[in-house]
């Protein structure tokens, strides 16, 4: 009884048949590399005795060792992030409400068009100096800075420094 293997006549089938035959020959001869036969007992030899030897003296100079760059945490300047007023203490301690200016802000007669932020210990609020506001209310702006809460709304509140 004969068995025939068919791989479809493709090049892949031809390669598979050759690999199977090579495996059978290796098993029959006992020279299987992974099996611990005579091939595994051989030692490794270098192909060239001068391979990976040191460089003769005076022909090569090692590269200079450069210092390792040290990266420092950047200094955080609060004024670079738009803070124009730093205040020690809480907002409630350092600012008081101004009624006429708050009313003008709610009516749209006082608007902040430039400026930045005022930084308190507990809160950061929008702030502007007098030159950074549009004042159509006729109220004289005497303070160096004005703080805004809920600006551009019907609940706008303007605070001045205390």
Question: Helical region count?
Answer: 3
- What structural class do helix, strand and pairing data support? alpha+beta
DSSP summary, beta strand count: 8
**End-to-end C-alpha gap:** 109 Å
Strand content: 15-25%
Low-confidence segments, ≥5 residues, pLDDT <50? none
**Average of pLDDT:** 78
Helix content: 10-25%
Question: Order of strands across the biggest sheet?
Answer: 1-4-5-7-8-2
| Helix-strand pattern | HEHEHEEEEEE
Taken from the alpha-carbon principal axes, the silhouette is: elongated
Radius of gyration: 43 Å
Profile the largest sheet: 6 strands, mixed
Description:
There is one protein chain. This protein is an alpha+beta fold. 19% of the residues lie in helices and 19% in strands. It contains three helices and eight strands. It has a six-stranded mixed β-sheet. Strand 4 (116-119) and strand 5 form a beta hairpin. It is elongated and about 105 Å long. It starts with 10 loop residues before the first helix and ends with a strand.
Descriptive terms for the model:
single chain; two-stranded antiparallel ribbon
How would you summarize this macromolecular structure in one to three sentences?
The protein is of the alpha+beta class. 19% of the residues lie in helices and 19% in strands.
Question: Topology of this protein?
Answer:
Elements: H1 11-29, E1 83-86, H2 91-94, E2 95-97, H3 99-106, E3 110-112, E4 116-119, E5 124-128, E6 133-135, E7 146-149, E8 157-161
Parallel strand pairs: 1-4
Antiparallel strand pairs: 2-8, 3-6, 4-5, 5-7, 7-8
């Amino acid at each position: 009884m004969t068995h025939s293997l068919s791989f479809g006549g493709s090049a892949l089938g031809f390669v598979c048949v050759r690999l199977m035959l090579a495996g059978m020959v290796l098993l029959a001869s006992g020279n299987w590399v992974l099996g611990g036969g005579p091939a595994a007992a051989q030692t490794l030899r270098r192909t060239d005795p001068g391979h990976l030897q040191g460089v003769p003296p005076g022909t090569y100079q090692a590269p200079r060792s450069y210092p390792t760059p040290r990266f420092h945490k950047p200094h955080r300047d609060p004024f670079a992030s738009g803070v124009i007023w730093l205040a020690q203490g809480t907002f409630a301690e350092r600012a008081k409400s101004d009624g006429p200016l708050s009313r003008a802000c709610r009516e749209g007669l006082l608007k902040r068009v430039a400026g930045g932020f005022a930084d308190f210990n507990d809160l950061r609020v929008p702030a502007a100096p007098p030159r950074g506001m549009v004042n159509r209310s006729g109220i004289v702006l005497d303070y160096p800075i004005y703080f805004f809460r809920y600006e551009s709304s019907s609940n706008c509140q303007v605070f001045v420094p205390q």
